[in-house]
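Input record (one chain):
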Amino acid sequence: MPREVRERQMLDAAVRVFARRGYGAASMDEIAELAGASKPLVYLYLNSKEDLFTACVRREADVLLAAVRAAVRPEDPAERRLWNGLRAFFAHTAEHPEGWAVLSRQARSYGEPFAGLVAELREGVVDIIVRLIEEAAGTESLDGCEASGLAYALVGAAESLADRATCPEADAPAARDAAATLMNVAWVGLENLVNGRRWGVVRA
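The corresponding structure, as predicted from the sequence alone:
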């Protein structure tokens, strides 16, 4: 079997085990057995448990970001691109709940270098959202700090909804419904900002 195929099988197995058991409790024996490979071969290809987990986090982050970028087509208007990007995000996390669990729960729980890889994913999504907000609102209506703040808020909300949607016990919304929820918050709010309607700080 080509090494590329064998490594993919190992990563697939590792994502399942890490998502189910967490990084600390996951064993290389279980990963090797699920991948149909010997433990020495897993170590030969992927060096260590830490390196294996890092490879899983990086792969899942890259695939998710690629799915969002592919959905945001440059020929579409900004509103449609944001809608398509949100739908792609929720569709991907719903279709790959174990990969999302590794990114959203496991990688963040064990510090560096894993949390840094998730932060890179978030920055990539935030960059996409900032550009869409700036194109839709115009730099005259929003400054860079406001656009960035809105993008971070939107991404944080998307992550929370994805966590809920991939929780087995939750009454999870469909990808389309989750995306519509954020569009109602983000786009309606953005229209208000463009039209000069802002929440003012009330001082006692």
